[in-house]
Amino acid sequence: MANYAIGDLQGCYKEFQALLLQVDFNPSKDHLYLVGDIVARGPDSLACLDYLYTHQDSITVTLGNHDLHLIANYMLDKPANPKDKLTALLGSAKLPAYIAMLKQQPLALWLETEQVFISHAGLNPAWSIEQALQHAQFAESCYQGENARDFFKHMYEQHPGLWSEQLNEFERFRYIVNYFTRMRFLTLDEQLELSYKGSITNATAMMPWFEHPKFTTFKQHIVFGHWAALEGVTNHANIHALDTGCVWGGKLSLMELKNKQYFSANSTDFI
Ligand SMILES: [Mn+2]
């Protein structure tokens, strides 16, 4: 029995299958954690969800921004962006079942045995792992509850800069979702910086979230995706960036969670 994590699939089904073959993934014994962004931009989002659905007892996803966007569009009856290449998925008779499956997935996970925290974008340094899991549970109850449509309606409004107990439930939901699914940079006063789209080298008055001083003495492992431009590099042995840009011509990365051993499949082998 083994546990694995794989970075952002984004419809890269062939590389996904190649990786599972490489590690001899056995759905009847092993468990697979996907760090989110299963769908969008890549060639075969439908095949990825077909596989997840068939093996859902052996797979857990920590939802990414693209997954939440798919659910939101579905629930709010909004059209997809053509560049997301979701036509086949949106035309599938299985779509309602796939949306229901995605909605059951968490935003964050803690694996005690492996000492691994997993979420799509990482861990907000202002939160302990326990607090992060509590925030994730609140947001999950929002998108799994009967008022889910209302929460999705408010998901794209302005980010509430600071956490406060005065935030209403929609603002709290949005704040938590943004940290778990969209975070890359933090300002020097530790607020989420969502507008900057440049490189780390050119970033001024901000830092990648994992460069926060908290993480110099952080002992647990963090597994995340979302940030292909990192090319897997965080300069922290215990902070694992698994989005290695498969959909952009890079590779798909897998980590065996007990021994922290890496495997990859190059997208250029599948053109
Ligand atoms: Mn993402």
Automatic annotation (TrEMBL):
Catalytic activity, as annotated: P(1),P(4)-bis(5'-adenosyl) tetraphosphate + H2O = 2 ADP + 2 H(+)
Gene3D superfamilies registered for this protein in UniProt: 3.60.21.10
Broad EC category: hydrolase
A Pfam family of this chain: Metallophos
GO molecular function: bis(5'-nucleosyl)-tetraphosphatase (symmetrical) activity
Keywords on record: Hydrolase
EC numbers for this chain: 3.6.1.41
Signal peptide: none
Domain Calcineurin-like phosphoesterase residue range list: 5-226
Role description: Hydrolyzes diadenosine 5',5'''-P1,P4-tetraphosphate to yield ADP.
Similarity field: Belongs to the Ap4A hydrolase family.
The protein, known as: bis(5'-nucleosyl)-tetraphosphatase (symmetrical)
Organism listed in the record: Pseudoalteromonas neustonica
